[in-house]
């Protein structure tokens, strides 16, 4: 009997060691990136750091990535869109139907409420916080951080709403708290941790976010920064973002593109994520950015037709002339006149599941007449 008990103990011990070894091997397959002291990419030293970081990421992408449990992941059911995006898009389509269970009668009230919420001061970042609050952080550093966070969101298969909320938390925190560049990456992963807890069914663990930074920060560092961010946000975490309004505007825009409705949708998602990289877009309301995205997407697909119409003006509450400044910024991003060195979003949407919309190009100039409201009364 004693020999049997010893045998069982040895077998269990061996099984535990084997399981621990397999878990460590699986964990090591994930890519890790150390942003370290993020430099201003306007300098040659900063450009060198960014190129090195991108090369390291590109090498890591060739490694086998761990698969998350399909039952616990929102984005594993389809290649093109996560379950949440599919569900929300479906709701938006049928909301205008005659089915009373679809609450079509309340759509206008719901979006009216969201429009009011997006304008609340406590939910908006300062449009010039880098000039007024920050002393050691620049717009280029912010761009590098968000570009990297796009890759992290892809690595952990997060829904796009988590990415939008992450950027919102970062900007709102930086609007009231001055930090040094060494903590910028820590702020990024802590904000994404909060956003993941808010949006995901099974969010990544704290240890995952430590590992993705090559353990530059400890678990305690991330948790403490998470607490600081939550206090700064006053636990107001559910903000409407660009994607919130883009879902509805896309449904309206697709009516003119029966044969390429998915292309319109993915092109809109691509341009919207490009807007996250540019510091100048902070001053615009999410609904205005969403409307500008649709304007530019329609112009890209049909450059000879007026990209705005009565239906879009009515539902978005914006005239074409209201969108001019934002559209021009997005147009420069699309043409790589701005943020050309930030390639994560471009690579993400250069996949067949997104119909390679990042390879689409629009004319270098947008006719001024398109912003004068011609045929849009």
CATH architecture of the largest domain: Orthogonal Bundle
The total domain count is 2
Count the strands?
0
Query: Nearest-angstrom radius of gyration?
Result: 23 Å
CATH top-level class of the largest domain: Mainly Alpha
Compute the number of helices: 16
Q: Tell me the series of helices and strands, N- to C-terminal.
A: HHHHHHHHHHHHHHHH
Overall, the morphology is globular
Named CATH topology of the largest domain: Cyclin A, domain 1
What proportion of the residues is helical, as a percent range? 55-70%
Multimerization status: single chain
List keywords for this structure.
377 residues; mainly alpha; Cyclin A, domain 1; 16 helices; 56% helix; 0% strand
Q: What do you see in this structure?
A:
The longest helix has 26 residues, at 2-27. The protein has helices at residues 2-27, 44-61, 83-94, 107-118, 129-132, 139-155, 160-174, 184-199, 206-212, 219-233, 242-253, 261-277, 286-301, 310-316, 324-334, 344-348. Mean pLDDT is 77; it is low at 42-96. The chain starts with a helix and ends in a 29-residue tail after the last helix. It is 56% helix and 0% strand. The chain is mainly α. It has two domains: 70-233, Cyclin-like (Cyclin A, domain 1, Orthogonal Bundle); 242-371, Cyclin A, domain 1, CATH 1.10.472.10. It contains 16 helices and no strands. Helix 12 crosses helix 13 (286-301).
